[in-house]
């Protein structure tokens, strides 16, 4: 390796960065998501097993950090995505959500988008953010409720994301997914009456606050 660095210093550095990123990505552990009914009758999603007396609904394996594929990303960007994944919660007919989505895409930030449409989605949003405000962005464990463009940009920079887009020209963002996806093997009850989420001030009909 030392001879390689002396002969081709720039190529050696690139090789080391690539290997480091691959090792970091491959070290991500598979975790498991559990779903059960809490004492108050509401559905709980968590990566920790439910209490022994809880009514278990289902569980599934999921990628512990991010569902964003890093296969075609530059090594430096792939490493940031793996360490500080970005998740964006949005809802239909939400102007601020559209602005937040556009901000991330224009900055070249790979992210996972989760849509809030159903009451289960609202429950999931409440669990991860403690509120119903949208858009909601999460960078690893840092939470950002509502769109504050300067705050978002500063947080992304602090997380290690580049100031200008490093995405390949052929990069395509994945389609949004439900905030509370149906777990395999779970059947939807079409006749069940959905629970209404609490409606804070200035909310939409389903309790989501913009």
Automatic annotation (TrEMBL):
<feature type="domain" description="DUF4124">
    <location>
        <begin position="21"/>
        <end position="56"/>
    </location>
</feature>
<feature type="compositionally biased region" description="Basic and acidic residues">
    <location>
        <begin position="185"/>
        <end position="199"/>
    </location>
</feature>
<feature type="domain" description="Glutaredoxin">
    <location>
        <begin position="86"/>
        <end position="135"/>
    </location>
</feature>
<dbReference type="Pfam" id="PF13511">
    <property type="entry name" value="DUF4124"/>
</dbReference>
<feature type="compositionally biased region" description="Basic and acidic residues">
    <location>
        <begin position="166"/>
        <end position="175"/>
    </location>
</feature>
<dbReference type="InterPro" id="IPR002109">
    <property type="entry name" value="Glutaredoxin"/>
</dbReference>
<feature type="signal peptide">
    <location>
        <begin position="1"/>
        <end position="31"/>
    </location>
</feature>
<feature type="region of interest" description="Disordered">
    <location>
        <begin position="165"/>
        <end position="210"/>
    </location>
</feature>
<keyword id="KW-0732">Signal</keyword>
<dbReference type="InterPro" id="IPR036249">
    <property type="entry name" value="Thioredoxin-like_sf"/>
</dbReference>
<dbReference type="InterPro" id="IPR025392">
    <property type="entry name" value="DUF4124"/>
</dbReference>
<feature type="compositionally biased region" description="Polar residues">
    <location>
        <begin position="201"/>
        <end position="210"/>
    </location>
</feature>
<dbReference type="Pfam" id="PF00462">
    <property type="entry name" value="Glutaredoxin"/>
</dbReference>
<protein>
    <submittedName>
        <fullName>Glutaredoxin family protein</fullName>
    </submittedName>
</protein>
């Amino acid at each position: 390796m030392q001879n390689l660095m002396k002969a081709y210093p720039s190529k050696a550095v690139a090789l080391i960065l690539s290997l480091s990123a691959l090792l970091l990505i491959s070290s991500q552990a598979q975790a498991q998501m559990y779903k059960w009914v809490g004492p108050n009758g509401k559905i709980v999603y968590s990566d920790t097993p439910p209490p022994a007396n809880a009514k278990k609904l289902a569980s599934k394996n999921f990628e512990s950090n991010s569902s964003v594929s890093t296969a075609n990303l530059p090594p430096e960007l792939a490493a940031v995505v793996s360490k500080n994944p970005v998740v964006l919660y949005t809802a239909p007919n939400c102007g601020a959500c559209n602005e937040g989505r556009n901000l991330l895409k224009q900055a070249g930030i790979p992210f996972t988008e989760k849509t809030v449409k159903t009451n289960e989605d609202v429950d999931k949003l409440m669990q991860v953010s403690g509120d119903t405000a949208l858009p909601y962005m999460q960078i690893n464990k840092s939470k950002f409720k509502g769109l504050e463009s300067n705050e978002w940009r500063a947080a992304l920079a602090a997380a290690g994301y580049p100031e200008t887009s490093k995405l390949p020209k052929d990069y395509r963002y994945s389609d949004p997914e439900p905030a509370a996806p149906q777990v395999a093997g779970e059947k939807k009850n079409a006749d069940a009456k959905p629970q209404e989420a609490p409606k804070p001030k200035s909310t939409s009909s389903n309790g989501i606050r913009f």
